[in-house]
Amino acid sequence: MASTGNTLLALITGAAIGAGVGLLYAPDSGEKTRKKLKKDAQKAQDNLNKRYTETSSNLSEKAKKARVDFETRLEETLSSASHKADDILAAMENKLDELRKQNAKLQKDKANKSSNKSTGNTPDKAVV
Fold first, then answer.
1. Contacts of 28 (CB under 8 A, 6+ apart)
2. How many other C-beta atoms lie within 10 A of the C-beta of residue 10?
């Protein structure tokens, strides 16, 4: 974009310098010189308008492409994050099930110890 701006500036500067030199060294009459200048100015304006239109069109296309690329990458990122979240939730559910089983076993062992103490039987001593 900076290159296009520099090109346009160079074109305008060159046209202005050329017009000034043309006036100083014009072999034609004033009327012919003015017509030439007007014609050259019109050409320069047409050229600038053409470049402006091309640049605007290119920028619009690039902006649309960048938006589509961004939306695609965002969708991929969200999808990936969703899959990772599902994996994490599944792992956490598995771990929770394991902890529940361990807790149930500990509760059962605790209940067994309590019942053994109240009856006087201990699992370590053999009854003869």
1. 36
2. 10
